[in-house]
Amino acid sequence: MLHFDDLVEYWDSAGVTKTFSHPVNFSWLDDLLDSQSRILDYGCGYGRVMDLLYEHGYRNMEGVDFSAQMISRGRQSFPYLSFQVIHSPSLSYPDGSFDAVLLFAVLTCIPHDEVQEVLMAELVRVLKPGGILYISDLGLQGDERNQERYCLFQQKYGVYGVFETEDGAVCRHHNKEWLRSLVSSYELLATEEIEVATMNGHRSQATQLLVRKSTVERGEIPSWT
To answer: What does the pLDDT profile of the chain (225 residues) look like in tens digits?
Structure first.
């Protein structure tokens, strides 16, 4: 079974040359955040999304990624942004550190359910009560090329939608029900289906979700007065 450490080799080699393209819907963010809101870009890669946020006026951001080569590329391309290499899904930040977490095309790099669930639990922890999580990721595709490789690799990985690319990546496309289940503890604020270019240049359908963490912490008794 693949875990985080098994995936780093690709992103430190062939993956570091890729260009990513998921767009940021700033109309979702601007009513909920301000320029000093603390934002975590988890799986930031080379910092493309953080740079878009910086150009839009956001200034209090942290980017973390498992790939040291991706982080090195980001520091060279965007020296005014803050990057950190991580070695475990567990983060060093205290509980409730961030007003927002971005998770752009990260779940597609994590093939197995249980590893995704570990990650999502950690993101819940570092979000403030009332904080937002913005996910952009790839759904199951309906074209013949993708469906053939979903079937080809299903037995190997145990999940329909997981596949290997020709250059060595292990990726996952998700059904909508699974993505919704990962954020079932959040309040759904918005969702949208969009078309994106994948890192290998194919046009694909993606899902974007904006959700909000409850303002009531677990174990806390809400007041109804």
So the answer is: 445 566 788 888 887 888 888 999 999 999 999 999 999 999 999 999 999 999 999 999 999 999 999 999 999 999 999 999 998 888 999 999 999 999 999 999 999 999 999 999 999 999 999 999 999 999 999 999 999 999 999 999 999 999 999 888 999 999 999 999 999 999 999 999 999 988 888 889 999 999 999 987 654 533 333
**Cα radius of gyration (the chain):** 17
d(CA 67, CA 14): 11
* Domain region containing 38: 4-15+22-139+176-212
The CATH number assigned to the domain holding 97 equals 3.40.50.150
Q: How many CB atoms lie within 10 A of CB 145?
A: 9
Query: Sign of the C-alpha dihedral, residues 92, 96, 97, 99?
Result: positive
Bridge partner residues of 142 (DSSP) = none
pTM, two decimal places:
0.92
* Cα–Cα distance measured from residue 7 to residue 11, given in angstroms and rounded to the nearest whole number: 7
Domain count, the chain: 1
